[in-house]
Amino acid sequence: MPRRATYTETMSVIERRIAAGEYMLKDLPGERKLAEETGVSYMTARKAVLALIDKGVLARSESGTLTVAPEHEAKSAATTRVALLIPAYPSPYLTYLRRSVDHATVGKPIQFRAFEYAHWDDGIVKEALDGCDGVVIVPSTEPIPQRVRKALTAGPAKAVFLDGDLSELGVPSIRLFPDRHIRGLLDHLADAGYEPIHCLNTQGKNPEIDRRIDLWRAHILEHDIDGNLWDDPTPPYEDPMLRAHAAMKHIIKTTPRPLGAFVCTTQPAALGAMRACYEAGVEVGRDIAICTINNEPTGWYFCPSLTGLETPDFEPLLHPCFDWFASERPWKGDLIVEPVEIPLFIGESTTGARVTANR
Questions:
Q1: What are phi and psi of 33, to 5 degrees?
Q2: Predicted pLDDT at 205
Q3: Cα→Cα distances 57→2, 8, 10, 13, 71, Å
Q4: Which of 56, 58, 100, 152 could share a disulfide with 52, CB 3.0–4.6 Å?
Q5: Domains of the chain, each with CATH number or no CATH
């Protein structure tokens, strides 16, 4: 069977890129750059481009630059351009959020692309807000500058916050861990007889982290339980696990026994604390209880397994957001959107007993 012509392979690469939204916020490169990117000669890249122009996929502007042909965009089933802005930080949790948003677009008339941003003044933030119909934003712990806060509500793109709260500005916000479920986790510790119940935070501060700390503080006051706040926020885009490891080493050396229970605001803080306990010969689940408010999907697999609220399936909460992006109407309903139920996984880190479940 004869090998397919190289220029047709190059055509396929360009078409796949267009379908994946790679040129959603940027212009297509010229033939020389395309040749370099796809590993073919300039003449092969040029032949592929001319074929795509003939096919009605590409067009050439008066200035000579390549664009996606308006007729091709009109024919595309993807009629709504949606971007996900996610902090440029290596995290399994952020990867999970990214996959979930991507999966929620499947089968919908949406052209979707995820973009990482390194700070709020990163050019990609403005490009997404200027060039898309809708933008889903996972906020970093860096404070949002006033000019960016204004851009989030000024359009042209509609913005939704994911795992954050900017409802005060009228931005619809998907809050993954409602107050009542966090209180349920705290009730589990109190009902198990743990005292004191401390709070450990090494995540960079933002309104979401402040809310979790406030809920812990209100709970110990309401139930007249002793507890200290160990609050050492990590700078934006740095690893809170390392700082939690150092914090727990200090706590073990300076805190009288019994150590009680520690509610960690995030899973990385819990993991750093658990490692410090292991190194100090403090057995998690027997000598100390450690749990996390948001238990990432990996929590079950640690040894000991980590107690915490399981990350909910939030894809159904995204669908009304996508419909809103595609419409001309204002947002309807509550600005804070939350899942109805979130399972509390009780692991060995707060029981010391073997846990069995269908996994």
A1: -70, -40
A2: 86
A3: 26, 14, 13, 13, 8
A4: 58
A5: 6-74 (1.10.10.10), 78-176+314-337 (3.40.50.2300), 179-311+343-351 (3.40.50.2300)
- Give the phi and the psi of residue 130 in degrees, each rounded to 5: -90, -25
Which of 52-66, 132-146, 298-312, 320-334 is least confident? Answer: 52-66
Which of 116, 91, 112 minimizes the C-alpha distance to 103? 112
Q: Where are the beta strands (DSSP E) in 311-357?
A: 336-337, 344-345
**What's this model's pTM, rounded to 2 decimal places?**
0.82
pLDDT of 352 higher than 80: no
How large is the C-alpha radius of gyration of the chain? 25
Number of Cβ atoms within 10 Å of the Cβ of 132: 27
DSSP assignment of 51-76 equals HHHHHTSEEE-TTS-EEE-HHHHHHS
Which residue type sits at 226? D
* pLDDT, position 62: 78
Q: Residue 3 pLDDT more than 70?
A: no
Q: Which runs of E-coded beta strand occur in 224-354? A: 229-231, 261-264, 289-295, 307-310, 336-337, 344-345
Among 36-45, 115-124, 243-252, 334-343, where is mean pLDDT lowest? Answer: 36-45
**C-beta separation of 272 from 292 below 8 A:** no
Structure tokens at 349: 């880190």
Terminal-to-terminal C-alpha distance of the chain:
47
SS3 290: strand
Q: What is the 3-state secondary structure (H, E, C) of 7-29?
A: HHHHHHHHHHHHHCCCCCCCCCC
Give Cβ neighbours of residue 36 (< 8 Å, ≥ 6 apart).
Answer: none
What's the average model confidence in pLDDT over 200-211?
A: 92
Average pLDDT, stretch 99-107?
A: 93
Q: How far apart are CA 105 and CA 328, in angstroms?
A: 19
Residue 163 makes CB contacts below 8 A (sequence gap 6+) with: 97, 138, 139, 174, 175, 176, 208
Q: Examine the pLDDT at 359 and tell me if it is beyond 50.
A: no
Residue 142 to residue 206: CA distance in whole angstroms: 8
